[in-house]
Amino acid sequence: MSEAAPGLPDSPAFATPERARLAEAVRSLIDAVMTTEGDDPAVLLEVAAGAEELAERLGGRREAGAGYRPRSHNDYLPRSPVVGDASPLAPRIEWDTSDDALDGKPGIEAHGTFGAPYEGPPGHVHGGMIALAFDEILGIANIAGNHPGMTARLTIHYRKPTPLFHDLQFRAVVDRVEGRRIMSRAELWDGDTLTAQAEGIFVRPLPQRAVEIFGPDAAEAL
């Protein structure tokens, strides 16, 4: 099983506007590293040295391991590699609830742009990144429908290549719930073009297991 955001509240102490601005700046640096060609080696080394110095100011470069202390799951969404405004890895997918997300069902709608770091086929989003985004978006749709769970199965149907640098839209809903099993689905659109679809089966963990994975506050959230 993989993790689908269990819906615990974000941590205000972590997800500050200042950290979001820093994440956006690092995101821009990552994009520049991925797209800039032909720079003077001396310039590259100078920028690298500057980046290393900044990393030291924030607590040092990580040599091994996760690089941060174990913590509660309360600040998961700000750290998300898909929707996290505090994560420089995230393409920054913005989402909100919708009364008519897909086929008249309530769920969530999300939109955002995948830049150069997410390239697979030339000019298009890597299929693995699309799968990751679907996993996260479906998990959030489950939360919005009061059915949080963990991913048991995720099936992706790739209909068309998904372009980079386009404003893309996700739509996701909970289809049905059978006991602890939650069946959800989502679509990805580039304007009027359907580029991919996803179907997920999620499982609501038992309270004891939720506490083991997500910390003492998880039982109430789930």
Please describe the structure with a list of short key phrases separated by commas or semicolons.
222 residues; alpha+beta; Thiol Ester Dehydrase, Chain A; 6-stranded antiparallel β-sheet; 6 helices; globular; disordered N terminus
CA-atom Rg in angstroms: 19 Å
The number of domains is: 1
Number of helices: 6
Indicate the overall shape: globular
Task: Give the SSE string.
Answer: HHHEEHEEEEHH
Uncertain runs are 1-10
Mean pLDDT: 85
Topology, number of strands: 6
The termini sit apart by 17 Å
What is the level-2 CATH architecture name? Roll
Highest-level CATH class = Alpha Beta
TL;DR?
This protein has helices spanning 17-35, 41-57, 76-79, 127-144, 207-214, 218-221, and strands spanning 94-102, 105-112, 150-158, 168-178, 181-190, 193-203.
Please give a structural write-up.
- With 222 residues, the protein is an alpha+beta fold.
- It has a single domain, classed as Hotdog Thioesterase (Thiol Ester Dehydrase, Chain A).
- Helix content is 32%, strand content 26%.
- It is built from six helices and six strands.
- Strands 1-2-4-5-6-3 form a six-stranded antiparallel beta sheet, with helices on one face.
- The protein is globular.
- The model is unreliable at 1-10 (pLDDT under 50).
Layout of secondary structure:
Elements: H1 17-35, H2 41-57, H3 76-79, E1 94-102, E2 105-112, H4 127-144, E3 150-158, E4 168-178, E5 181-190, E6 193-203, H5 207-214, H6 218-221
